[in-house]
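ligand=uracil
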Amino acid sequence: MKKITLNKLLQKQGFGTRRECEEMIADGRVRVSGEVVTTFVEALEPELLPIEIDDEPWICREYVYVLLNKPANYECSRKPSHHPGVLSLLPPQITARNTQPVGRLDHDTTGMLLLSDDGTFIHRQASPKHHVTKTYEATTHDPVTPELIAMLLSGVKLADEPAPLKALTCRQLDSHRVELVLDQGKYHQVKRMLAATGNHCDALVRTAIGRLRLEQLELQQGKWCYLDEAQLVLLGPST
Ligand code: URA
């Protein structure tokens, strides 16, 4: 991060307008290297300075990379219409930064949802060229059969899709659950693929993105965490 004055830094970190951040500083709520700072004209190097806001340490991030364990009945849209939006589950410092979901999950799908304010990262994660795999656990209405697995692996034809879509891998978890790995993200893809086999998807959880698995994060539904460098590496392809 480049050198920056404290008022601009706080604004970039999502603490409000420039004016609101200047008030926070004037009110003595901000410490830099342990000292209350009431002026903000000097340019600082954010990575080098321990900053505290209201006596809590604050890590300055150029971009945020967040993983939410999405609950059911939340919409990924920025303008949700029937349910609350996923952004309402995040604190204001994150949403004030123009953070947005990377791709979408249906309102009734639960599990891993990435959010970021880094446009390059969002583009790379969402681009079909980068083949970031997504793993889903689907609960089916009718029992899972060897034929269903075979159809999902060999490819099913969906309306509006020129070529059949297939899972990279598909395995039965129990009588009514399958795990599928996809490297595309078409609209309602898992539900439509299951419908095309003659079955129906009753519940859907995204359990992994790339090699990062939900179970590694120990996140309750509705909770979120920042992703560190090592976790970001796991989001990409394995090579
Ligand atoms: N496929 C679906 O059908 N829904 C999702 O939310 C994600 C993948």
